[in-house]
Give the backbone structure.
Amino acid sequence: MSAPASQSQLSAEVDEHLDSAAATKGAAASVDVKVLNDLLMGTWGDVRREAREFVKDPALHRRDGLSLEEQRERALAQLHLLVEHGAVHRAFPISVGGLEDNGGNITAFEELVSADPSLQIKGGVQWGLFGSAIVQLGTQRHHHVLPPLMKLELPGAFAMTEIGHGSDVASLATTATYDEGTQEFVINTPFRAAWKQYLGNAGRDGRAAVVFAQLITKGVSHGVHALYVPIRDDNGFLPGIEGEDDGWKGGLNGIDNGTLAFHEVRVPRENLLNKYGDVAEDGTYTSPIDSPGRRFFTMLGTLVQGRVSLDGAATAASALGLAIAIRYGNERRQFTAGGEDEQVLMDYQRHQRRLIPRLATTYAQTFAHDELLVAFDSVFSGKGDTDEDRQNLETLAAALKPLSTWHALDTLQEAREACGGAGFMAENRLVGLRADLDVYVTFEGDNNVLLQLVAKRLLTDFSDKFKDADIGALASFVVGQAADAAIHGTGLRTVAQTIKDFGSTARSVKELRETNVQRELLTDRVETMVSDLAGRLRGAEKMSPQEAAELFNSQQDELIEAARAHGELLQWEAFTRAYEGIEDEGTRQVIEWLHDVFGLGLIEKHLAWYLIHGRLSPQRAQAITAYIDRLLARLRPHVQDLVDAFGYEQDHLRAPISSGIEAERQEEARAYYRELAASGNAPLEEKVLKAKKKKKR
């Protein structure tokens, strides 16, 4: 066995390999910002550019220092600007003036996050939740409310969440009981824990709500269904409606969140949104879906667009934060690092380690999100709307939304710290963006709950595929949830091929750089975690419900980690497909390095797992970190181009530290010292020079 390589040896061998690989391709690394911007704009690039241009309007921008009421008034006025601009019609039926362009609709609304996250979310409540629920859960008889809804003449709320049942929608306690005598539903909130909570537009502006309740006819509960319920008129709450204002929140204070309760509130039978379940005049219940469980999940699945849009908005917020921080890092100078001039922050290795891997992840999320948008549009346009298509879409959204929203908080915080005290100033937007995005990790599905849903789907697929298989078949299992159905055509290599030590460190570096080796390492982790979990949970179906629940709970952390690893694999696959399609060789070289930072960064993050499970030797593990460090140095000259390729202008960033002001200040300081030096009798300059000489000694 050869002796472990030193860090300097690793660095030299990595550099040699990178130089050799670049020479073989015959292209100097460079970034064609336009080419890369076209790729990052995604499938609905024209729509995204149009939305970017629109959100430059200062009337749409967040304004600090306003009272709660002023923030709410501003957000409502901004929604009216969207209506005037024609920005809200894309997803609605052509019959009511819409375009039935679901992918383009989400694309445009995501861009509102750069203007004001309160605007994005309040618009999402009005048209993406309230409006979409009527379109997706209702039928033609409900379409008369769509024109006033689209024009904001009918502001609405989406009343699903209850204080006592946040994520457990199936157990909601609000009831809608059919009265055959009057042909009305009687909606009732039986106790305080059944109050509808955290509802956008409920605190002040909402005139109606889509209310989710247990549907009861002839004494039988048919599970959770949705009804259209008026809640206010010009004089306030309607009879039987009670509500409270949530007041100040940690962010998104332009949205009037509140609570609602219903006390024997009667609505006509026709107010039931009846696409998946209907009640006849005599109280007879019918549904096109026989299974109550499948009916419930089908209804919830029609509302997946909230998770899709949050995934995109969180990714955009990460890009905004990095664009601000990296621009500042390329201008702000600190310490001389042995030279006469102070050094810009981005030249320091630690600064590169803080920001470039997060930039790589944001690229991966951007490409994964575009694939999610394509899948979403396919299902909602009807082009690919089978049960399997919908389940795959729901699983994909549930896997990606947690990763992107967690990443946004992490990235905005790191960007804030990387900008020092300037990052803490409200005018530079990083603290405000982070505060507004904080709740993204727990609404439209708590992230940990969503990942459990993903894990259950992985286990179900595993069980279906191998219920009659022997251990040999299990060993070759490959998780098949990537957007292109199969992660790679030939399956994994044998375990021996995957984990063997390739000998010299240089050979290790070469192998680690190969796309298929990264794919194997990432895929192997997912499949091993899923198969291990399946083994531990095997037999649960024969236990009592309580025993099975206890067993499942004992594996909850592992379930969530397996789902998270699966989501990371999906992002890596999307990044791989994107960069392999780049034709400009110089740009492709740079993006390949960025792709390697992301892929090897995932492996580095989980090195303990790979070492414990024998997938990597200590020597190869050491090579991964060395390789990433050298890649960061290679990417350093291109990092500004990489954030410029996102396409955000100063009208989008609106942070003084990203406007070039820091470069002007630094040049002013250097000119001052040059003038002192030229004068020949400047005490301050002498002190500076003495300090530099002392530091060198």
